[in-house]
Amino acid sequence: MERRSLRLAPMLLVSIVLLASGCVGGGTPSAQESQQTTTEHVSGTASTPAPPASNPLVAEAQQAAAGDIPDNQVFLTFRNRAAGYSIEYPEGWAQRGSTRRVTFRDKNNLARIEIASGSKATVRAAADEMARLRRRTPSLRFQPPMRTTAHGKPVVKVVYTTRSATNPVTGKRVVLVVDRYYVAGPGKHAIVDLGTPQGVDNVDAYRLMIESFRWR
């Protein structure tokens, strides 16, 4: 594995709208949201069944609080030869999965890469998929998909949020803010989800990660 340190550009001015005024499917999440079983609560337990492709990330209510990725964080290069891509991820993060779906995590800091069929990544397709996920996951809120670039290549980006189940001790729920990227490839596309608990700043580190994604 290759190692590199995080080189931070000047802090980006990023504002994420989390409430219904700027998102599709607004409203207050109901108490029944924690009963949804179609979302992916990522854990380190290898026996946890894999969910259907592209389900939204959801934080774990009992997971320890996650902090900002430090400025001097070392990154490693993960090469998925079977799926045909590489991406950099923070050293020390736990890896789960292989080939079609790989997840890296440190507490509730989460990164997941999925490979899906079809080489096109469009705003319309992303909006349709997020609307389907919203119907299955009531806590999900998302901003309209937009075209942007990563490593000079066109990608489609969606910002969405989900809420964890209620923590039985604190009575609180973790809001996870996720940057989702659809990256077109040769006869397939990658869905890259980069999730951060609300209030944690991983903007620069996550930008480095999506900029490092390469098809092989």
Q: In which range does the helix fraction lie?
A: 10-25%
| Low-pLDDT stretches | 8-52
The radius of gyration is: 16 Å
**Mind telling me which CATH architecture this is?**
3-Layer(aba) Sandwich
Distance between the termini: 16 Å
Q: Pairing-aware structural class of the strands and helices?
A: mainly beta
Beta-strand level of the residues, as a percent range?
Answer: 35-45%
Form type? globular
Tally of discrete structural domains: 1
Would you tell me which CATH topology applies?
Protein Transport Mog1p, Chain A
Overall number of strands: 14
CATH class: Alpha Beta
By CATH, the superfamily comes out as Mog1/PsbP, alpha/beta/alpha sandwich
Structure annotation, total helices? 2
Q: Characterize the biggest β-sheet.
A: 8 strands, antiparallel
Task: Report the mean per-residue pLDDT as an integer.
Answer: 81
Give, in order, the helices and strands: EEEEEEEEHEEEEEHE
What does this 3D model show about the protein?
The chain has a single domain, classed as Protein Transport Mog1p, Chain A. Helices cover 11% and strands 37% of the residues. The chain has 2 helices and 14 strands; from the N terminus they run ββββββββαβββββαβ. It has helices spanning 123-136, 203-212; strands at 3-5, 40-41, 57-58, 74-80, 85-90, 94-98, 101-106, 109-117, 141-142, 146-150, 153-163, 175-184, 188-197, 214-215. Strands 6, 7, 8, 9, 10, 11, 12 and 13 form an 8-stranded antiparallel β-sheet that branches. The longest helix has 14 residues, at 123-136. It starts with a strand and ends with a strand. Mean pLDDT is 81; it is low at 8-52.
